Amino acid sequence: MSHLLLKGGTIVSMDPGIGTLPQGDVLIEGQRIAAIAPALEAPPGAEVVDAAGRIVMPGFVNAHMHTWQTALKGIAADWTIQEYLRAMHAGLATHFRAEDVYIANLVGALGQIDCGTTTLVDWCHNNPTPCCTDAAIDALEESGLRALFLHGSPKPDPKEGQKHFSEVPLPRSEIERIRRDRFTSDDRLVTCGLAILGPGMSVFDVSKADLLLARELDLVASMHVSGPMLVPDGFERLCALGGLIGPKTNIVHGNTIAPDCLSLLVDHGATFSVTAEVEMQMGFGRPLTNRLRALGGAISIGSDIESGMASDMFAVTRFALQCARFLDSLDAIEATGRGPAAITVRAEEALHWATLGGARMAGLEHKVGSLAPRKQADLILLRTDDLNLFPVADPIASIVLQAGPKNVESVLVAGRFLKRSGSLLYGTLEAKREALAASGARILRAFAQPAHLVA
């Protein structure tokens, strides 16, 4: 089996037993990490990479991204949630073909690799046909990224005689098809789960049916809660049924969930994905981060929509951290007339949300999210001699508060370089750029509406 030794880097492991090593080595054997120590000998025939002047850390886990929107980058920059739902889901999304989903997912995944993400949770809710679903999965597999593909459902306006999307459960036969034919093993780089509507956006019987399907197939079930609940007591009723809400249940946003309901969900082991930037822009209310911290809830973070904002996890992590600190300071000022006496959320905790927190949300914490022997070798190297990082006094603070995509020198997934010496290891990238641009232009022409659509 091949060996790779990363030698002399600053190791930020995110593993409590290993911690941060000012200088250390990481030995990779095949797809897995074999050893981490201040100094290791290279096995015979091993490739040795000089990691001096580099931070070696777990790759980011982007816990929530609608990758199919990559070709529409920036169009939602000034939209509220009401404008977004009308223009994107009832409008632009209806003009996508399978080839549009493919190119968006491929270039979106490559963009995530380029920025240091090694695991992407792809919340795919524009797949009206099996061809669109297969195209999205094909693209993720082609990119080389580790991904959890969440099969969702589109949200167009119903035509005459059709049910509203809130009354339609996920298609069992299609979920069973991809589970049987596309996801034959949970050891693959790309695995599957469900992107369900949940009681925030569907009637109770649909929420129940979708969660029963997730439990039957042992899949993560993720749902949006981005406004008033369609079924106000839906979570309480689902929890009362037993076994439907648990560690494989994921709530995205959830800003307006009532305190007692939030406590109930945390007690049942549900995970939560915060996308602070889009939540603040689109009028969701206060991000859940601080309330979850007080309850001991499981927090992950994601970029959400490239149609609205940046998708790199450096920006996502920084925004989530400073938003949480800001809200704590507002609460302190309101209560005492002055800000907190000490920082309430440390940088290391935010990095946990962006690594191990996301891995837990995806059910992959046993594989990724930290650097430790026997875990998958999903890691990134950051250049510390770039002027925006140099000099590094505290590597975790530097990652969270100074670093950016330009510092990502190399990216490995399952021990394989996907980016090296600053360049993606993917051919025909220019042709993919052109295809993405053409896709976005065609969809916008077909939509034929101004970007500020409100209807």
Concise structural overview:
The protein is α/β, with parallel strands linked by helices. The chain has two domains: 3-58 and 370-424, Urease, subunit C, domain 1, CATH 2.30.40.10; 60-361, Metal-dependent hydrolases (TIM Barrel, Alpha-Beta Barrel), CATH 3.20.20.
Describe the structure.
- The protein has 455 residues and is an alpha/beta fold.
- It has two domains: 3-58 and 370-424, Urease, subunit C, domain 1, CATH 2.30.40.10; 60-361, TIM Barrel.
- It is built from 14 helices and 17 strands.
- The strands form two sheets. Strands 1, 2, 3, 4, 5, 14, 15, 16 and 17 form a nine-stranded mixed beta sheet that branches. Strands 6-7-8-9-10-11-12-13 form an eight-stranded parallel beta sheet.
- Helix 2 runs parallel beside helix 3, helix 11 packs across helix 12 and helix 12 (347-361) crosses helix 13.
- Belongs to the metallo-dependent hydrolases superfamily. ATZ/TRZ family.
